[in-house]
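Input structure tokens:
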């Protein structure tokens, strides 16, 4: 379908639109937008309200390329290393823009792709018929927010209790965390439960760097609690008039907007860290 055709994606729980629009007033939302606001209110304003652009960086370009490569591997149901490498090199060329990638960085991504081949065959059961969706778009209402999302992979799977739908998100970063704690996967589960109302749904994070997959089945209570929490945070966002900087120090330092023009607090934190770094270096050098 492509992410340029968001308006064509069906709203999965559109019955929530049947009541007073004056109370609803949905705002466009995505998990990235929502988590940005939780990380730092000021960053949300700078990025999504004032429209400041973030520069593409190497980890982001590599992550996008690996995502697109895995989508192609599943789409064309291939386990051929040469073909998969071709997908990857094409994706790198598309996503790197003006970045200069070193050989070691390109080879690291290639290694992830090759290591993923056998794992992806295991995940899909080696049968393309098990794949129910690749880069599947959805729109889902929580409170006054209309969330738009794209799910990397939706599979028909089976365990000792019978068949279920597995919703999988690829992660190419270094830091691993559990699916159970991942809010984005709760949102994806809510959406997929609407797509397959007669099926059990499990959620999985697949760490391409490590070839590991972590699967969890959210309970109704966990999902209800999640929706209530998101609804409350959206109300806070909608009523926010100040969008004050409130990010954690280390995130603030590395924020792309941490400069004196866009975010003085971030700029000040960066100066503090630079001074501390120079002090440590001076001490180490005697």
């Amino acid at each position: 379908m492509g992410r340029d055709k968001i308006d064509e994606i069906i709203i999965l729980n559109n019955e929530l639109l049947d009541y007073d629009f004056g109370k609803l007033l949905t705002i466009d939302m995505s998990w990235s937008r929502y988590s940005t606001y939780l990380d730092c209110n000021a960053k949300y304003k700078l990025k999504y309200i004032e429209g400041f652009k973030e520069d593409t960086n190497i980890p982001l370009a590599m992550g996008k390329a690996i995502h697109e490569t895995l989508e192609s591997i599943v789409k064309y149901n291939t386990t051929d290393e040469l073909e998969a490498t071709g997908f990857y090199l094409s994706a790198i060329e598309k996503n790197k823009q003006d970045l200069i990638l070193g050989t070691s960085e390109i080879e690291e991504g290639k290694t992830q792709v090759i290591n993923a081949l056998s794992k992806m065959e295991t995940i899909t059961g080696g049968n393309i018929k098990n794949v129910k969706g690749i880069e599947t778009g959805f729109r889902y209402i929580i409170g006054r927010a209309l969330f738009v999302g794209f799910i990397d992979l939706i599979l028909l799977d089976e365990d000792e209790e019978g068949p279920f739908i597995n919703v999988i998100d690829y992660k190419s970063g270094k830091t691993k965390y559990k699916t159970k704690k991942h809010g984005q996967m709760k949102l994806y589960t809510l959406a997929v439960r609407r797509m397959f109302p007669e099926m059990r749904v499990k959620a999985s994070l697949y760490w391409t760097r490590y070839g590991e997959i972590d699967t969890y089945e959210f309970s109704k209570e966990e999902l209800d609690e999640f929706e209530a929490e998101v609804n409350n945070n959206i109300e806070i966002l909608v009523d926010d008039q100040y969008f004050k900087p409130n990010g954690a120090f280390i995130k603030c330092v590395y924020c792309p907007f941490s400069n004196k023009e866009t975010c003085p607090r971030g700029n000040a934190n960066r100066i503090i860290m630079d001074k501390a770094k120079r002090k440590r270096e001076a001490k180490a050098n005697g």
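The chain has two domains: 3-239, 249-284. The chain has a mean pLDDT of 89.
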